[in-house]
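Q: Convert this sequence to C-alpha cells.
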Amino acid sequence: METSAHPYWPRALALPGYVAGARPGWQCAGAVAAAAAALFALGWALGGTGGGAKGVAKRSPARRLVLGWFLVCAGIHGVLEGYFSLRHRELPADTGLLADVWKEYAKADSRYMTSDDFTVAMETVTAWAWGPLSFLTFLALLRQHPARYILQLVVSLGQLYGDILYFATEARAGWAHSDPHPFYFWGYFVGLNGLWVLVPALLMLDASRELARAQRGHDRPRHKAH
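A:
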C-alpha cells in the first residue's frame, strides 16, 4: 500500500511513491540467510569432491570455507546487488521479495532508497564485476587453476576497497542514513558489511603468501643436469 510514511532515516527523508514492504523483516533476513547457507553448503560439499580434477589433493577445511565464501559472494553480488543496480530507481515503489529485502536493509542505510550516486555506482561495479569474478574465482579454486590466487587477490582487493569507501562516505555524512537502533546500525550496517572487510583482508593475505611462495620457487636457481 502506498504511504507517505516510512521507517528510514533521516526521518524527514522524502520518498515519493513509497510502498511499504509486504513481508516482515525476519522473513526477508531469513530468506537471504537461507539462500546464503545453501550456497555455502554447496561450496563446502563440492570442495570435498576435488571438483572432478585428477590428482587434486584433499582440501583442508579452511580451503573448503573459502570455496563456500566465494560461491556466497557470487550469489549475493549477482542476484541481490544486481537487482539493486537495475531497479534502484523503482525500488521505493517496487514489490516482491528482493524489493522487500532491500527495504529491510535500507533501515540501516537509506541511501539505497534514494538512488544515491555513490551507492548505485559501487553496487553496479560489485554486481557486474565482482559477482561474475567471484564465481570465476570459485571455479578456479575448485579446479586448482594456476590463476586461482591471482583471482582471489583481485576480487578480495575490490571488495575491500568498495567496503572501505562505503563506510567512509557514510562516516563523512555523520552516519545520518542509519536507524540508530543497535540492531540496524551494529547488526546490519556494521556487522554485515564488516564481513566484507575482515574476510577479504584475510584472503588477500592468504593469496599474497601463496603467490610469494610460488615466486620464490620460480626465482630459485636451477641446477643444470650433467
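Helices lie at 25-47, 61-87, 97-105, 117-143, 148-172, 182-219.
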